[in-house]
Amino acid sequence: MLYAINRKLAMYLVAVTCAIQLSPSVQAGPMPVGSSTTTVSYTTTAGEQAYSAPINYAGQSLSDAVSLVGAPNIWSFNSVNSFGRRPFLATGGAPVLDTENETAVAHAFFKGFNDDDYFPGIAEGSDVTLNINNIAFDQPVSVDNSTVMLHILWRPVQADSLDSPYSNLHNHHIPSAGFRDLAEFTAPGRIFFDDPTQNYILSDQALSVTFTNNGPNILNLEVAFPYALLQNLEENGQTVPDGLPAPQGFLEPFHFHVEYVVTPEPATLALLGIGACVCSMRGNRRRS
Fold first, then answer.
1. What angle do the packed helices 266-287 and 2-20 form, to 10 degrees?
2. For residues 21 and 283, is the Cβ–Cβ distance under 8 A?
3. Spatial separation of the C-alpha atoms in residues 263 and 152, rounded to whole Å
4. Which of 278, 288, 287 is nearest to 18 (CA)?
5. Positive or negative torsion for Cα 238, 241, 242, 245
């Protein structure tokens, strides 16, 4: 009995030691693999419209975007650690992303034609719903819900043509009240501003973000918000010149994206460590 207990204790100590000594490749942040199906849907007077495309995770800029099949004006790409507000801030020296253990994922949307509507004929009161299905990672992951953000961007030339131009071309909508690293984002010269008006909203009840699991390493994401959320936070009834997209009276942005951070699922990381050590011990036994 004592031998069994000591043996279990010894194996536990070996596992802990091995987990601490894991190679960087095991501890690196999770990476998406393959493609996910991206679908954008909204309601018009003719009924619900939905457009989809399979999209991989190699995107970094607008040039990598692909058109959703049949969509009049919606292009999209997915990105890892290279696009979004958090990676942008990290490159400026802010400690907001630990790329050894964390991965920043972005699902970005752009217009194919900047002066046309995003969602032609969208009905008053309609939601815009984004579904990204089968987000497969090379290991099980956990989502840090305090990092979720919807970013919206306007073209300067369009915003400057308003009779009262927007000062902030970047808006941010965050479903969590306790947004991670808020102090870094609001530091002088950073991303979140309060001048002349606040360009971010914490605990935004109009924004619904839901992650569901299809398997240990597969996520599905649904983001839903009323179309009216796409108006600039400085919108006060400005007159939009003819020829610019404003289907419901306010200037439409040309880009938005949702981003979030994932980390290895803790239990799985420990199991990976134990497995690596067992394999190592077996190898040593064969050589002895």
1. 110
2. no
3. 25
4. 278
5. negative
Instruction: Please write the tens of the pLDDT for every residue from 122-180.
Output: 999 999 999 999 999 999 999 999 999 999 999 999 999 999 999 999 999 999 999 99
pTM of the predicted protein model = 0.84
For residue 69, what is the DSSP state? B
Nearest residue to 162 via CA among 247, 239, 244, 243:
239
The span from the CA of 272 to the CA of 277, in Å, is: 9
The model's pLDDT over 70-79, given as tens digits with 9 standing for 90+, comes to 999 999 999 9
Angle at CA of residue 197, ends 154 and 127, nearest 5°: 50
Cα–Cα nearest to 170, from 112, 96, 256, 83: 256
**Of 128, 171, 131, 129, nearest to 151 (Cα)?**
171
Q: In Å, how far from its chain's centre is CA 200? A: 16
Task: Check residue 81 and give left, alpha or beta (phi > 0: left; psi -120 to 50: alpha).
Answer: left
Q: Cα–Cα distance between 231 and 227 in angstroms, integer?
A: 8
> DSSP label at 160?
T
Residues recorded for the chain:
288
Q: How many CB atoms lie within 10 A of CB 131?
A: 18
C-alpha dist (Å) from residue 158 to 23, 170, 185, 191, 206: 50, 13, 26, 21, 25
Contacts of 129 (CB under 8 A, 6+ apart): 39, 40, 41, 42, 222, 223, 224
Q: Name every residue whose Cβ is closer than 8 Å to that of residue 15 and which is 6 or more positions away in sequence.
A: 270, 273, 274, 277
Per the CB < 8 A criterion, the answer to whether 22 and 273 are in contact is yes
CA distances 68 to 45, 111, 143, 251, Å, are 21, 11, 26, 23
